[in-house]
């Protein structure tokens, strides 16, 4: 993940990088981060465009926690995309099993 833009942010330097677990998670997820002002009600993850949105107005601790939470959402979204890709094929299999029984 190339998020050098956030590594100079106060919340990243003083809070987020203190957690080895959070840093490990960050390295495993290939999403970019955008700091936004007032354009969204809360932090969010866009799995299609692979972007995590964080609100600038929050406290350093709140932003760091939001980032960690959204990294988990990003990780889970990768698993969900596989399920959604397989869903049409699995639906046909389930329908056949129901018809046979």
Order of helical and strand elements: HHEEEH
Shape: elongated
Alpha-beta content class: alpha+beta
Distance between the termini: 48 Å
Mean pLDDT: 83
What proportion of the residues is helical, as a percent range?
A: 40-55%
Under the CATH scheme, the architecture is 2-Layer Sandwich
Quickly count the helices: 3
Q: Provide the domain count.
A: 1
Please indicate the percent range of residues in DSSP E strands (runs of 2 or more). Answer: 5-15%
Q: What is the fold named in CATH at topology level?
A: Zincin-like
Largest sheet, spatial ordering of strands: 1-3-2
Rg over CA atoms:
18 Å
Q: Characterize the main sheet.
A: 3 strands, mixed
Uncertain segments are none
In total, how many beta strands? 3
CATH class: Alpha Beta
Brief sketch in words of this structure:
Helix content is 54%, strand content 13%.
Topology summary:
Elements: H1 10-14, H2 20-28, E1 32-36, E2 44-46, E3 51-55, H3 60-100
Parallel strand pairs: 1-3
Antiparallel strand pairs: 2-3
Helix pairs in contact: 2-3
Structure description:
With 101 residues, this protein is α+β, with helices and mostly antiparallel strands. It has one domain: Zincin-like (2-Layer Sandwich). 54% of the residues lie in helices and 13% in strands. The chain has helices spanning 10-14, 20-28, 60-100, and strands at 32-36, 44-46, 51-55. It has a three-stranded mixed sheet, covered by helices on one side. Helix 2 crosses helix 3. It starts with 9 loop residues before the first helix and ends with a helix. The model has no long low-confidence stretch (mean pLDDT 83).
């Amino acid at each position: 993940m190339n998020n050098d833009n956030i590594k100079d942010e106060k919340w990243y330097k003083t809070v987020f990088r203190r957690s080895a677990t959070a840093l490990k998670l960050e390295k495993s997820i290939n999403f970019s981060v955008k700091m936004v002002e007032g354009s969204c009600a809360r932090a969010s993850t866009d799995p299609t465009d692979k972007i995590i949105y964080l609100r600038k107005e929050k406290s350093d601790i709140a932003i760091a926690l939001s980032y960690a939470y959204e990294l988990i959402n990003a990780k889970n979204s990768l698993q969900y995309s596989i399920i959604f890709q397989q869903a049409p094929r699995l639906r046909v299999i389930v329908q056949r099993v129901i018809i046979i029984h």
